[in-house]
């Protein structure tokens, strides 16, 4: 067990909770948050659950200038029999530490982070929505807080977890989205920070997203940063294609985020005995598959939307419709299965789900 004791400073003032049917994504936050500080020489210290409130930071805090920050995203679900489930949360904290390593942020005690998350969720359990398609989105993040303008790793940090009751990420829900293949901007290059979950990757994606939205596309398809030929990700998600019965996703190459939903999809497909490949795949190959009628499905995968079917690509002046613009059977089956495992409605043959109360130590 981690040696730190989490302090509780709870507020009697509770906010009004939104109605399930009014939930969007990431706009409403619960009454409390978890905070822990890091100081060089002292390590991570003072873990605490405090009222959700604005932070007071020095304007010279390094995060504002050089973007040394990392984050994670995962969800908690309330089952029909009132159990609280997390989906593979240990993987999020493992990835957070990989992101930390890349951004020169000190390693976190993953066990303490998971314990802190569970304690925070139990504190806020009344905020977990239980209507179909809703969950409590969890955003752990770390920011560099040393007041200093030198370009160097910070000597002070804050690790924070905030919670937000959410509905679906895209207004389309599980309905197919239109995707513009991005040929000018790139998201990441191998050797860069593409496989880390760091704020800068998302900041650099905004321009392309803005251009795509103006043309009425929901998201962009990112190509590799070197040749702009090979497919990397879609929007802020991993991407899969079904071509002539085989499901293909770009292999992890140093610039692609190692998605937890991506991994779960691969495991499920294998479990179902469906052919699945992780390999390099070019846009030209997608075009050829489209022309020969073999491009059967395409979809994005991520925590926020789970599965997001793609109904159309636009590339080099050419429109390619996938599955007549409708959600394909593989995307639908994956969505139904993963969300049912997450909600505790279906058996979990992989032991992905973690029940929150089981691991709570007596306070
Ligand atoms: C996800 O698909 O979960 C994401 O990474 C999107 C998130 C940045 C809102």
TrEMBL record:
Key words of the record: Amino-acid biosynthesis, Aminotransferase, Branched-chain amino acid biosynthesis, Pyridoxal phosphate, Transferase
Source superkingdom: Bacteria
Main enzyme class: transferase
Pfam families documented for this protein: Aminotran_4 (PF01063)
Coiled-coil stretches: none
Cofactor(s) in the UniProt record: pyridoxal 5'-phosphate
Organism field: Bacillus aerolatus
Residues with the N6-(pyridoxal phosphate)lysine modification: 197
Classification via NCBIfam families: ilvE_II, PRK13357.1
Upper lineage: Bacteria, Bacillati, Bacillota, Bacilli, Bacillales
Catalytic activity: L-valine + 2-oxoglutarate = 3-methyl-2-oxobutanoate + L-glutamate; L-isoleucine + 2-oxoglutarate = (S)-3-methyl-2-oxopentanoate + L-glutamate; L-leucine + 2-oxoglutarate = 4-methyl-2-oxopentanoate + L-glutamate
Pathway note: Amino-acid biosynthesis; L-isoleucine biosynthesis; L-isoleucine from 2-oxobutanoate: step 4/4; Amino-acid biosynthesis; L-leucine biosynthesis; L-leucine from 3-methyl-2-oxobutanoate: step 4/4; Amino-acid biosynthesis; L-valine biosynthesis; L-valine from pyruvate: step 4/4
Protein name per Swiss-Prot or TrEMBL: Branched-chain-amino-acid aminotransferase
Family: Belongs to the class-IV pyridoxal-phosphate-dependent aminotransferase family.
Record flagged with keyword Chloroplast: no
